[in-house]
Amino acid sequence: MRLYLLALNPTDSVSEGFLPAAARLGLTVTVLTDQPDLHRRAYQDLGHLGGAASVEILECDVRDFRTVITRIATHHRADAVFTNSDHLQTQAALAADYFGLPGKDWRAALRTKDKAHMRRHLAAEGADTVWSAELPAGQDPASLAALPVPYPCVVKPREGVASEDVVLAGDIEDLLLRCKEIQARRPWAALVIEEYLPGELYTLETLGDRHRRHVLGGFHTTVSPPPVFIEESLVLVPAHPEPVVEQVLAQLDALGVGFGACHTEFVVHEGRARLIEVNYRAIGDQCDLLLAQLLDIPLFEHILRTHLGEPLPVRLGARTDGRARLDYPCAERAGTLTSAPEACDLTVDGVQLTYRPLRAVGERHEVYRTNRDYLGVLRATGTDQPTVDRVVAGFLAAQRWEITS
User: Fold this and answer.
1) What does each C-alpha distance from 293 to 53, 236, 268, 298, 393 come to in angstroms?
2) How many CB atoms lie within 10 A of CB 27?
3) Phi first, then psi: what are they for 388, rounded to 5°?
4) What is the pLDDT of residue 262?
5) What are the Cα distances from residue 137, in Å, to 56, 117, 221?
6) Which band of pLDDT confidence, cut at 50, 70 and 90, is reported for residue 265?
7) Rounded to whole angstroms, how far apart are CA atoms 332 and 329?
8) 26: phi > 0 → left, psi -120 to 50 → alpha, else beta; which?
9) pLDDT at 92 over 60
């Protein structure tokens, strides 16, 4: 059976999660990507897959669903079309639908990716109403002065990811300045301006096959101080309060979300759960790798099986005694990384630690105020949260990341 996997840049989710899972399922994988050389280099060391030779990589303009359909139609017959990219969910859904294969509803994929569509649809369905406005690409932000914008408000790209160019504005002058700064960096991008939703930030991770949906738990997310929203750490929440889960699932139902993996970010304030964004794919930044390990289930295989048309089991058999957290040391200034810890796997006081660098020594970077500032990721799992927290704090305190101008 052949799986077509749409991708932009290589990710840990694909190289360490989905490709090994596809190999275990006996699938032949064809990667369609606009960056084939990067993928060939990324997969050279995948010994468990036999190296890059076991993964066919074809160049394709994957942002254009018509090109994707043509590339598949003129190659081998597809048994599944899949992507874990935020940017390619609609294209993959349209391609799967064209070939009569299981997949997400392209409308749901579009309305979750497009944050303006998401707000409009939730309001139209009576699920939730958040004040929001859209600033088309190239339009003068001065037009916002005539709108009843509630302050503080949040400005973000309509189809952005990873908190990039998401910023809090306190008044009209601040709002106009922030919009102009983002437009200078992204002249092609439409922006969304919406009311700031107070509350603690959480995630809900779900897996469905249209007939059955499993809630895998979620995370409590710590973000950087405003005006930006960089995710600095995530602590596992094995089970959110049932009323909160019900509220989030009702809003996902209103959006038409229910197939495959979904990573939903929401805030809870005075018992009310309100969506921040819906990422219609598995959670990234190595959280999915941690979940698969902690729950002790073939998570990536389950996700791929749904796209092959196979039903999910009634019970996943996931462990419930695990506790975990992830921390992301961040660069606080621009410069060259001259010293940093190497990758390591340790067990301390019963806590399993996995540290992986995300930036190589010798690389120079600016400060992006997004997850592109991450220097590394520390995954920690155990059975007692205070012990996990203590061991993580000790490990991070003992490390040094040096950046020189």
Assistant:
1) 27, 13, 27, 9, 21
2) 20
3) -60, -45
4) 98
5) 37, 16, 31
6) very high
7) 9
8) left
9) yes
Q: List the structure tokens of 85.
A: 């990219």
CA distance 215 to 248: 11
Which run of H or of E encompasses 231? Answer: strand 231-237
Contact status, residue 185 vs residue 287, Cβ threshold 8 Å: no
Going by pLDDT thresholds of 50, 70 and 90, the confidence category of residue 47 is low
CA dist., res. 301 & res. 260, Å (int) = 11
DSSP 271-289: TEEEEEEEESS---TTHHH
**Alpha-helix residue ranges (DSSP H) falling in 99-213:** 106-113, 115-124, 172-185
Write out the H or E segment, with its range, that includes residue 73. Answer: helix 65-73
Largest CA distance in the chain: 60
State the CB neighbour count (10 A cutoff) for residue 102. 20
Q: Which two tokens stand for residue 187?
A: 């002249």
CA distance 347 to 391: 10
Measured CA to CA, the distance from residue 218 to residue 314 in angstroms comes to 20
Secondary-structure breakdown of the chain: helix, strand, coil percentages, each rounded to the nearest 5: 35, 30, 35
**110: number of Cβ within 10 Å:** 20
Dihedral (CA of 312, 317, 323, 329) sign:
negative
Domains annotated for the chain, with CATH where assigned, are 2-101 (3.40.50.20), 131-195 (3.30.1490.20), 200-404 (3.30.470.20)
How does DSSP classify residue 78?
Answer: P
Chain mean pLDDT for the chain: 95
What pLDDT is recorded for position 272? Answer: 97
- The number of CA neighbours under 13 Å toward the Cβ of 123 is 11
Strands 191-195 and 213-223: unpaired
The model's pLDDT over 101-139, given as tens digits with 9 standing for 90+, comes to 999 999 999 999 999 999 999 999 999 999 999 999 999
Cα distances (angstroms) measured from residue 314 to each of 119, 207, 208, 213, 364: 33, 12, 11, 9, 49
> Residue 49: which pLDDT band, with cuts at 50, 70 and 90?
low
Amino acid at 21: A
User: Beta-carbon neighbour count of residue 90 at 10 Å?
Assistant: 23
